[in-house]
């Protein structure tokens, strides 16, 4: 089995709740550890993208600096998407180390 370390799990759980994504549904999407690799050309950064088998979630590999940036802005992101649920910002559901 693949093991994950979750960053800011409570914040992301609240974000998922706000998106009407149940924890059962979210975990089920990752249970089989089967991901489809998306074309690398779709990424400006050259990072890899993956899609869950049920096609509900897209995953992106990050370098450490990107993950640190995301953690630094997470509080502001959370406040924004909570106040503006119709925002056009992407919907982040989690940040993990695999």
UniProtKB/TrEMBL annotation:
Keywords carried by this UniProt record: ATP-binding, Kinase, Nucleotide-binding, Transferase
Cellular component aspect of the GO annotation: plasma membrane
Gene3D superfamilies, alphabetized: Phosphatidylinositol Phosphate Kinase II Beta
A Pfam family reported for this protein in Swiss-Prot or TrEMBL: PIP5K
GO molecular function: 1-phosphatidylinositol-4-phosphate 5-kinase activity; ATP binding
Species name: Guillardia theta (strain CCMP2712)
Lineage, uppermost ranks: Eukaryota, Cryptophyceae, Pyrenomonadales, Geminigeraceae, Guillardia
GO biological process, one term: phosphatidylinositol phosphate biosynthetic process
InterPro entries, alphabetized: PInositol-4-P-4/5-kinase_core, PInositol-4-P-5-kinase_N, PInositol-4/5-P-5/4-kinase
Protein name according to UniProt: PIPK domain-containing protein
UniProt superkingdom: Eukaryota
Keyword Ion transport attributed: no
Span of domain PIPK: 1-98
């Amino acid at each position: 089995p693949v093991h994950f370390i979750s960053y800011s799990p409570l914040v992301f759980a609240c974000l998922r709740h706000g998106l009407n994504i149940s924890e059962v549904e979210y975990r089920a999407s990752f249970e089989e550890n089967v991901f489809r690799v998306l074309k690398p050309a779709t990424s400006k950064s050259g990072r890899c993208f993956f899609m869950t088998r049920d096609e509900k979630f897209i995953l992106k590999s990050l370098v450490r600096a990107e993950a640190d940036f995301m953690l630094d802005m997470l509080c502001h992101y959370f406040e924004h998407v909570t106040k503006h649920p119709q925002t056009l910002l992407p919907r982040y559901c989690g940040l993990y180390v695999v």
